């Protein structure tokens, strides 16, 4: 079943989540119509390879054209219209930046997998639950409603200012008319009556001036309250969601909505500023005792400018955190002399600012807060923000060619550059710019989340552990001394994040049983998820009992094994993986002989083994576990083929495959058949030509089991025989002779 078919079978609450990340950048119609084709392409690799991304974009357009031809024959007018619109979108938006569509589709597929994993969990994790709080959603709606109301109020005040201007012009005309009369005429009763009318008009002017100033004050107050409370909380929530998304959590949305709010508020403040300028202009033409404009206007203008400064400063955000294109699922880990990308956005989108704001990138600007190591950024570190590069037309800038380089120390050698670079040192990429608009000059600064610098790819796992722990434990965006005294983490939240590592990196998260096993491995006991606090040292620094490696190194090796060697089997859910030897035997003991399960080795890094149950002649149950297969052996033979072709040699018996049913009772070929190679591995006989050619050879996994003991055999008992040795034995010796040779 395709991934998209599984998505369509989800409950409505999960379908609503899917609906949130499909928009005009990648319409859902295309995802639906081209589901199989889209899932068969490597969008993740294309997101880091422009040539590959361009080929995929061209092929995507070809696929759309084929669908367009099909629906044209069916005369489906609505679908024809939508597909033409999509084709125009793909050609227009992404032709100059094909990697962007690859990133979008890769993210959508990843988020689908995460939602599918979440749907299979019995309960929603605490972190994800907090991100989908109904109170937060209600606040978002309230912010949008209030921003719209403020914009309307500012526009209505415009009409009041225009009325005031017309009223003052009429007053000015009548006043000048009276002033132009001869002195005798001024003493007439008619003129005196006109003077009384003029005084009444002045009173009305005074009232309207006070009314306009009062309305302007209310608009300013409403903007101030919104910015101080709900809008600030919305921005902080978005930044927290971004942190969580960076470590594998739900994709963070809402930035476009925030941009709309920031832009409308900026437009409203500039509108109020123009209204205050108009009042100043009216003041120069007419003033009087008790005039409210010279008293109130300076205070209001100062407040407007203050709000504009704050609004612009908050609107300068890092839209996409620093990330090496070679490791898209490990953001904020940067390797020296390797390019990384980072994207910034100004949430105030005004046409006057397009190409007018130049952003400068620096590293460790506040050097007093970081380690003794110093870095500089090589490559293009100054670029202009514009609305052309971004697919959604936002005012943004993306740095694509930055490289961190460590500076030499005063002694003439590099600091700690080398294999022992500390992966707990945090650094910061800073960005600064200046906005000049309508007489205002505003300096803006922002920073990335803390990054870890490495000099060797072997340091990446521990560096990524640091990124996970930081962003799980704190919402402080700039605590560079965090690891001087790292806080403990709640076990329930840590397990949720570990499940995200699997759903985002290898397409399937962990279920409650698998998480239970990890919890016991971390704590050494059965504990309550909600209450237990786990230390950073226990997670990443202390070796597991009796082992030469830490918990995180063990888990990271398993992720690498799945990604490179058993990914289809993992995604299908046929790898139980995280199950202890004790639990394994409890599960298998009552099952049909030949029932087996797949689990990850607890003693070998990046190893996977299988254990099957068998029954002795006296009726006793016995278990056999093969020596774990690691990436070296799996590179030579696919794991599905190993399961198909695996043989054991029992005493006085011919070789046979003991693996019959995948736990609990799935026939082996039904579970793994679609992953087998085209032809079963069979050893061919020597050709008739004798020495003219080579004897074809294949790898066949073989183990030997002795039947003279009822004790469970150790993995060394099941050490696989060399494939070439077994091939020769099988071709030229009888089963008895094979047994003798093995013995």
From TrEMBL:
Any Gene Ontology CC annotation: nucleoplasm
Main location: cytoplasm
An example molecular function term from Gene Ontology annotations: DNA-binding transcription factor activity, RNA polymerase II-specific
Gene Ontology BP annotations: cell surface receptor signaling pathway via JAK-STAT; defense response to virus; negative regulation of developmental process; regulation of apoptotic process; type I interferon-mediated signaling pathway; type II interferon-mediated signaling pathway
Protein location: Cytoplasm; Nucleus
InterPro entries per record: p53-like_TF_DNA-bd_sf, SH2, SH2_dom_sf, STAT, STAT4_CC, STAT4_DBD, STAT4_SH2, STAT_linker
Domain SH2: 570-672
Keyword Transport in annotation: no
Pfam family, one: SH2
CDD domains: SH2_STAT4, STAT4_CCD, STAT4_DBD
Record-linked Gene3D superfamilies: EF-hand (1.10.238.10), SH2 domain (3.30.505.10), STAT transcription factor, all-alpha domain (1.20.1050.20), STAT transcription factor, DNA-binding domain (2.60.40.630), STAT transcription factor, N-terminal domain (1.10.532.10)
Keywords: Acetylation, Activator, ADP-ribosylation, Coiled coil, Cytoplasm, DNA-binding, Isopeptide bond, Methylation, Nucleus, Phosphoprotein, SH2 domain, Transcription, Transcription regulation, Ubl conjugation
UniProt similarity note: Belongs to the transcription factor STAT family.
Record-given protein name: Signal transducer and activator of transcription
Gene this protein is translated from: Stat4
């Amino acid at each position: 079943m395709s991934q998209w078919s599984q998505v369509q079978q989800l409950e409505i609450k999960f379908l609503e989540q899917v609906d949130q990340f499909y928009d005009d950048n990648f319409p859902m119609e295309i995802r639906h119509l081209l589901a199989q084709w889209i899932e068969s392409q490597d969008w993740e690799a294309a997101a880091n390879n422009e040539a590959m991304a361009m080929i995929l974009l061209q092929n995507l357009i070809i696929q759309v054209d084929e669908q367009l031809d099909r629906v044209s024959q069916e005369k489906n007018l609505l679908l024809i219209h939508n597909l033409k619109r999509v084709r125009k979108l793909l050609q227009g938006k992404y032709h100059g930046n094909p990697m962007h569509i690859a990133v979008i589709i890769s993210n959508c597929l990843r988020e689908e997998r995460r939602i599918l994993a979440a749907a299979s969990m019995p309960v929603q994790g605490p972190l994800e639950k907090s991100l989908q709080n109904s109170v937060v959603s209600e606040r978002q709606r309230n912010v949008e409603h209030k921003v719209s109301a403020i914009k309307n109020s500012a526009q209505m005040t415009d009409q009041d200012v225009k009325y005031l201007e017309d009223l003052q012009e009429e007053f000015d005309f009548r006043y000048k008319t009276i002033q132009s009369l001869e002195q005798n005429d001024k003493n007439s009763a008619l003129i005196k009556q006109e003077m009384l009318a003029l005084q009444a008009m002045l009173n009305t002017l005074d009232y309207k001036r006070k009314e306009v100033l009062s309305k302007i004050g209310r608009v300013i107050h409403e903007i101030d309250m919104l910015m101080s409370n709900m809008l600030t909380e919305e921005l902080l929530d978005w930044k927290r969601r971004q942190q969580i998304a960076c470590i594998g959590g739900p994709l963070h949305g809402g930035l476009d909505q925030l941009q709309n709010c920031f832009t409308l508020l900026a437009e409203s403040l500039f509108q109020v500023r123009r209204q205050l300028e108009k009042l100043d202009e009216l003041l120069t033409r007419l003033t009087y005792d008790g005039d409210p404009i010279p008293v109130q206007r300076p205070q209001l203008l100062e407040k407007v400018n203050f709000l504009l400064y704050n609004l612009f400063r908050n609107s300068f955000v890092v839209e996409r955190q620093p990330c090496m294109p070679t490791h898209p699922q490990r953001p904020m880990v940067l390797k020296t002399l390797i390019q990384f990308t980072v994207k910034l956005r100004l949430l105030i989108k005004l046409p006057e600012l397009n190409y007018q704001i130049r952003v400068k990138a620096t590293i460790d600007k506040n050097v007093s807060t970081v380690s003794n190591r110093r870095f500089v950024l090589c490559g293009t570190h100054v670029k202009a923000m514009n609305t052309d590069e971004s697919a959604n037309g936002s005012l943004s800038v993306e740095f694509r060619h930055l490289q961190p380089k460590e500076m030499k120390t005063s002694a003439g050698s590099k600091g700690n550059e080398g294999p022992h670079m500390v992966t707990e040192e945090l650094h910061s990429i800073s960005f600064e710019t200046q906005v000049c608009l309508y007489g205002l000059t505003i300096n803006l600064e922002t920073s990335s989340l803390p990054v870890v610098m490495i000099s060797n790819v072997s340091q990446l796992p521990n560096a990524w552990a640091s990124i996970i722990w930081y962003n799980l434990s704190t919402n402080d965006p700039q605590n560079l001394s965090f690891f001087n005294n790292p806080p403990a983490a709640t076990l329930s939240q840590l397990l949720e994040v570990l499940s995200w590592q699997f759903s985002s990196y290898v397409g399937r998260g962990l279920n409650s049983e698998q998480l239970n096993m990890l919890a016991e491995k971390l704590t050494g006991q059965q504990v309550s998820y909600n209450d237990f606090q786990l230390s950073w040292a226990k997670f990443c620094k202390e070796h597991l009992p009796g082992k030469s490696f830490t918990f995180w190194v063990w888990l990271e090796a398993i992720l690498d094994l799945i990604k490179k060697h058993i990914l289809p089997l993992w995604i299908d859910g046929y790898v139980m993986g995280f199950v202890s030897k004790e639990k394994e035997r409890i599960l298998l003991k009552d099952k049909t002989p030949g029932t087996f399960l797949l689990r990850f080795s607890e003693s070998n890094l990046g190893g996977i083994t299988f254990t099957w149950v068998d029954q002795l002649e006296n009726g006793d149950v016995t278990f056999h576990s093969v020596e774990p297969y690691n990436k070296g052996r799996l590179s030579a033979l696919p794991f599905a083929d190993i399961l198909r072709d695996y043989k054991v040699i029992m005493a006085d018996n011919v070789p046979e495959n003991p693996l019959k049913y995948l736990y609990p009772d799935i026939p082996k070929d039904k579970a793994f058949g679609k992953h087998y190679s085209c032809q079963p591995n069979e050893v061919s006989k020597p050709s008739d030509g004798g020495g003219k050619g080579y004897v074809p050879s294949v790898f066949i996994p073989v183990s030997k089991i002795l039947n003279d003991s009822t004790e469970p055999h150790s993995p060394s008992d099941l050490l696989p025989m060399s494939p070439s040795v077994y091939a020769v034995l099988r071709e030229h010796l009888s089963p008895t002779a094979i047994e003798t040779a093995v013995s």
